Amino acid sequence: IILQxxxxxxxxxxxxxxxxxxxxxxxxxxxxxxxxxxxxQNRPLPQKYKYxxxxxxxxxxxxxxxxxxxxxxxxxxxRVEQTHSCKVKGPGISSYASAPLKAGESLRxxxxxxxxxxxxxxYHETPLxxxxxxxxxxxxxxxxSASEKVFQAVEEALQKFPFSYQGARILSGQEEGAFGWVxxxxxxxxxxxxxxxxxxxxLGGASTQISFVSDNYDGSESPSNSVxxxxxxxxxxxxxxxxxxxxxxxxxxxxLAHQTQTGPESxxxxxxxxxxxxxxxxxxxxxxxxxxxxxxxxxxxxxxHVGNGNFKQCQNVVKSVFNFTHCNYTHCSFNxxxxxxxxxxxxxxxxxxxVMNFLNLSDTSIPLETVKExxxxxxxxxxxxxxxxxxxIKLKYLAEYCFxxxxxxxxxxxxxxFTSDSYPNIKFIKKIKGSDAGWTLGYMLNxxxxxPAEAPDSPPLPHAGYVSIVTIMALLLLILFVVSLRPLWPxxxxxxxxx
Length: 499
Ligand SMILES: Nc1ccn([C@@H]2O[C@H](COP(=O)(O)OP(=O)(O)O)[C@@H](O)[C@H]2O)c(=O)n1
Ligand SMILES: [Ca+2]
Description:
By secondary structure, the protein is α/β, with parallel strands linked by helices. It folds into three domains: 2-43 and 462-498; 49-170, Nucleotidyltransferase, domain 5 (2-Layer Sandwich); 248-428, 2-Layer Sandwich (Nucleotidyltransferase, domain 5), CATH 3.30.420. It has 16 helices and 18 strands. The strands form five sheets. It has a six-stranded mixed sheet. It has a five-stranded mixed sheet with strand order 4-3-2-5-6, with helices on both faces. A hairpin with a 2-residue loop joins strand 16 and strand 17. The radius of gyration is 33 Å and the shape is elongated. The chain starts with a strand and ends with a strand. The protein binds cytidine-5'-diphosphate (CDP) and calcium ion. Cytidine-5'-diphosphate binds at residues 58-61, 92, 133-135, 204-207, 247-249, 350-351, 354-355. Belongs to the GDA1/CD39 NTPase family. This is Ectonucleoside triphosphate diphosphohydrolase 1. The chain crosses the membrane at residues 21-40, 464-485. It is a multi-pass membrane protein.
């Protein structure tokens, strides 16, 4: 017998009922609309940027940095990034003491570059700062009216540009050290996340800075070395010290002065390569407050500077510029300056990086003893061979790397007390995530109040999380909706059954 269920097959399909169709269409539209709104509403708007400009007037040269950050986040955690840098041609502004107007003129080319890099409609709200460091500190000590004239000339030149000029001033050594530390830790995202911080080692031409947080330093011992910050809801008690005259160019003068103290017309210098031979002027050598008191009584006009390339002897010469005889604190670095026990990782930038990178010694996983051996071999290399190997480097700079490398290792180990064990904690760095390590970014962040003292309130979910959850919920609703219409589903039509 063949039974047919033709009557059922002929029943009208409930999905074709107008009400069901309308409900389904509305449901689908509602869900699509929900997801679209969630995605669009929370999508970051097309970025508008704000800008800030900082001029770093160092002892050896001036550099201009342009920073950029999303406009709607300037008092928040939005990343501030360096978008451009420009190296001013010529020496540092302190070298223009006898022709101050030229100090202003020298900045023009980089300022014109800045005009091209910053969109015109942002000019008037773009702060422009100039900070001078140890070169101007020394000039100010030596001849304060000359330093004022240099600042006047620089101000006049900068005010001619359409930016929002915020002033030119000399940073204190403490500020220079502390802002370098802020820069390094800001760029590493350590402040916002409250992570262990990185110490900062900055080596300039005329001063050097060391800044770090140490558990056994609360600022009570030697309060002048203490800087406290409250950043993103965390308190930091920073140890910082700036050694004026201990930048590599001034130490070279001090080392030469030490060797020429008895006034010989020729000195044999272990920090210069064998075969190096140059005639230098005594008065230029002593033309700095770092060495002026050491000038020999009856110095000849010139002296002959001859190299013999001996690392061990060079270390002894360099050590002679440090004073280790007195310490009125629990621990000292040198010259009777307090320093708590070293702690944590360190980033070493500016001349630390330039010198160690040139010498191929910036990898601190190489044991300290090996680094010293390599440097000793480099120092002992004859001068003419060095020149041949580096035909494109100015001789003045090329001649000084043996000295500078020796100074860096001596400063780190004898001066700051890094050991073979703690040496690998140092990283020689130039940039972090595209921004130069140095005091300028920290200085601008501070002056524009861009690092909040308290952690900002943030939505409980990040954007991606929010969109995902809304999408998943919408899909679940869709499934629920379809399942809820189950009674209306067409029943499966079956093949005729044979009984
Ligand atoms: N490419 C470069 C740039 C700078 N430097 C050195 O880095 C140091 C920068 O010092 P600076 O001009 O910032 O001086 P300070 O005012 O910080 O003491 C100078 O000794 C320069 O000669 C270098 O060795 N290689
Ligand atoms: Ca510097």
